[in-house]
Amino acid sequence: MSVNERVLSYPIPVEAALEPPAEWAELRGACPVAHVTLPSGDRARLLTRYEDVKQVLADPRFTRLLNAPDAARLSDTEDGGLFGSEMAAIIPDSGEEHQRWRRLVGRWFTAKRMSALRPAMARIAEDLIDEMVERGAPGDLKASLGFPLPVYVICDMLGVPAADRERFSYWSDTLLNLTRYGKEEVEAAQAEFFQYMSDHLAARRAAPGEDLLSELIAAGGPEEGGLSDIQILVTGMALLVAGHETTANMIGKMVSMLLADRSRWERLLADPALVRTAVEESLRMDANSGFGLPRYLKEETEVAGTSLPRGTTVICSMAAANRDEGAFEAADRMDLSRSPNPHLAFGAGAHSCLGQALARTELQVVLEVLLRRLPGLELAVPVEELRRVEGLAVGGLQTVPVRW
């Protein structure tokens, strides 16, 4: 049966931790608007071509709210997971309110502010590497460096204690659930997380600090041009999840990609100036980035010559789009000096990732420090033995065993 006629299970199963499913290339070539079944059993359409994904992400008719009665549920718990939950509806989706939210929160994520954070990030990376080296090889780069660094940074920005990071990790996993957790466990974890953030905001109101949440409280409510209490609370939860989970996973995947072919690591050792473009190429080449971005269609429209009725849920696979030969020359080859590199790892349009300057800075700093401190770094297992994280909306590796 051709890919045109098949209904694929989504996410598409794949064995290799760092390689894309073979179906991506087939779909881009023959079936750019494919039929898929989600973990919930609901149907959706999958986009895999660069131009189509970019078009949909920038089109306001495709909304990110998946709590409409006819929207596809993503997860196999009834709430539909993070994207379809009531919480997702609290942060404004479009128009002036969304712009205001991005403006207020985005002040904390400017390239200038990230640049100022670089020395502190580098110190954290140095300390974490010291601890990993002290424990001895082999070590797990994800647990030792990839996970704690972004957690320390986002906790500091939000003014919450990094000592609670294990709890954040569990709570965010439940929020990103597709098939790993049951409904009761998800609801209990979300209630705990909600209570934790409520208590934290109450403490910040009583004693403001120099952090993002204190600043959002100080901006006043909607009548003063600020956010409502519930919007601040959900923003805090969303940033804590988004601010560590994706980057923690990406650090492990990036280092694994660079070590999978030793000549890549050697090239960076010889020319550390390539770190910036190497980070961008790692983001583009990430074949295990997770679910992609779901969008709900409020009115009938056309994508790639296919008419999609109102009520369609579309999944944009940025990872598949980033390997589109029509957009990138030698798209399946990792070119550490590729420039320009207009990949879609952070989305596109009005909803492109707010924290992309933070993620880029963390990835660059980690790579710079690793190259300097552990030039002999290598994978401690064959690349075929690396295992994907399963059952969550975000892609990653279970562990990244390394020696040095």
TrEMBL record:
InterPro entries: Cyt_P450 (IPR001128), Cyt_P450_B (IPR002397), Cyt_P450_CS (IPR017972), Cyt_P450_sf (IPR036396). Keywords: Heme, Iron, Metal-binding, Monooxygenase, Oxidoreductase. It holds the Pfam family p450. The keyword Membrane does not apply. Gene3D superfamilies: Cytochrome P450 (1.10.630.10). Belongs to the cytochrome P450 family. One of its GO terms (molecular function) is heme binding. Its cofactor is heme. This is Cytochrome P450.
